[in-house]
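Posted in: Structural Biology > Protein-Ligand Complexes

Title: Requesting predicted complex, magnesium ion in pocket

I'd be grateful if someone could produce the 3D structure tokens for the following input. Sequence and ligand are given below.
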Amino acid sequence: MANHNHNLSELTEKLVYFFDLDGTIYLGNKLFEGVLDLIEILRNKKKKFYFLSNNSSKSTTDYLKKLNNFNLDVSRENIILSQHPTIDYLKKNNYKKIFLMGTQSLKEEFRQEGFDLTEEDPEILVLAFDQELTYDRLVKASYLLQKEDFPYIATHLDNRCPTEEGYIPDAGGIAALLYKATERSPRVFGKPNKEMLLFKLEQVGVSPEDAVMFGDRLYTDIIMGIKAGVTTCCVLSGEMTMDMINKSELKPDFIINGIWELLNEFK
Ligand SMILES: [Mg+2]
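-- Reply #1 --
Done. Output follows.
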């Protein structure tokens, strides 16, 4: 059973802090209380901290702007988007020529990372949250997936994305459409896959037990943390309620009302 607020001070001894964004750091356009102070403390204590999102329709630069509009004063290195472990995998496996289903913003990020985005003779199909999808591109992707063992990966597979007016199809929705035509499913790198945390821990040389994941969703943030072997802390400021956690088989190591409760521990 989760250790509701006992030994919360243990969390101050971690070296790496991973934070989910929506529901954890902010809700829509409202930053939660205590976040600015907490980040300041982590910075002064020379801790490493990262903000995570699966939303690959936006580039790192887009997220940098969004976070700094809240006066968080962070840099690119503080942001982990689902395209980052994906790009890490592509580089480690020497993929160069890519058929990327993604926004112009994401394509720009891939080009800056040195990839050749092409429809002619690609080596792999990479599916992201492509909000500029056309039927023509779906047709081309379908043909590729019918070539035997053609490599196919996705930044993340959220089925739908919440907007102010309702849900819209996310990368998982697009993958479902391709599956109907080809019966192929991609390998995935974003939440809830542990690669999203492990590629960064490997880069900075910190072992999972010295890291903690904060998030508001059990079935993405918390399960990812458990699989990666990091300490997990569920915040009740987003999607999950105490009742939902009690009914779930998944138990985070810690449960707090919101990120602000951490401030007292650092004092
Ligand atoms: Mg969230």
